[in-house]
Amino acid sequence: MPLLCMCALFAVSCGTDSGTDSHIDPTREISTEIATRAAATTTLITTSTTAATTAETAPDTAVSASSASVPAETTTSAVTDASAAASSTELTSISLMPWWTPIATTTTTTLPTTTVSGMVVTEPAAWQTTAAQTAAQQDGYQLSASDQKFLDGCAFVGDSICSGLRVYKILPSDHVVAKGSVGVRNIFDFKFSVGKYETDVVSAIKSQNPKRVIFSMGMNDINMTTQKQYCTNYQALLTAVQKALPNAQLYVASITPISGDSKFSTNSKIDKYNAAMQSFLVNYPGWKYVDITKELKNQWNCLKANFSGGDGIHLSPAAYQAILWQVCKQLNTY
Prior knowledge:
Blueprint: H1 2-13, H2 30-40, H3 42-45, H4 48-57, H5 62-67, H6 77-86, E1 113-116, E2 119-122, H7 131-138, H8 145-152, E3 154-158, H9 160-167, E4 176-178, E5 192-194, E6 197-199, H10 201-208, E7 212-216, H11 227-244, E8 249-253, H12 267-281, E9 287-290, H13 317-331
Parallel strand pairs: 3-4, 3-7, 7-8, 8-9
Antiparallel strand pairs: 1-2, 5-6
C-alpha cells in the first residue's frame, strides 16, 4: 500500500501539462516573484533611498556593480544584493514598478519624485536623462525619422514589462496602455488611466485611435495557463480590440527572455509559448506576430546582462530601444 501511494503522488507531481515545466511553480506570476525578492531584502530596503542617491555621485558603488557587464548566468549573490540596495522602496509593494536600476550620469542633482500607483517614490536617474538613448545609439539601435513617425501611430499594450516604455520615458505616456500584474488571462479585469479617468483596456486603446496596436505581455501567463489557453485568451482580446478598432493593425509581440539564473521560469519554456502563439496567428491573416527577442538574447538563449533591469525579468532602458528597433525593422513600411 505505501508503494502505491508513493506512485500516485509521483504521477500527480509529474503531470504532462505542456504549458508548464515540472520544476517551476505553476502558479507564480511576476508580482509573486517580486514580493519574494522584497521579503528577502527587507534590511536593505530601509537604506535604499540613501544608497540610490549615493550611487548617483559614486559610479563605483553598488549600482555600478549591478549594471556592470556580468553574464546573467554567473551573477553572484553580491551583485543581487547590491542591486536590491540600489533600488527604491517600490520593492515593498507588488503594485509598483520594480525593475529599474539607476543609471550613473555625469551631471547629478537631487532626484525628483513621482507618483506611481498612488504612492510617491524617488525617480531613477534614467527617467531624467537620455542615457538609454545614448546607449542604444552606441549599440546600433538608432531610430530613423521614418521609424519615429511609424511609432507615433502605435499603441503598446501589456504588463509591467511593457510599462517600461512609459516609465523610462522611451515613448509618450499616452502611447502605452500597461500595468503591473496584467496577463492576457486577466487583462479585462484591470482599469487603465485615460486622462483623469479609469477605464477598461479596450476603451483605453480606442481613446488613442492608433493605426497599430502592439500587444506585449505573457510573462504573467506562462506559469498560470497552458499554451493552448494562452492563445485562446489572446484570441478573445484581439477580437474585442478589432471590433472596437476595425481599421487598426494588430500585432502580438513575443514574450521577452529572462536571465539564465532566474528561478521564475526558463527561456525554453518562454520559447515554447512564443512558438505556439506564432503558429496560432497563422490562422488569422489579419493579426501578425512580431519577434522582439532576438536582439535581447545572448549566445546561451538568455537575456543579455546589460538588458536586465536588475531582477532578471524586467528590462533596462536600453533594452526598450532594442525592442523598438526590432519592431520598426519588421513592421515599418514607410
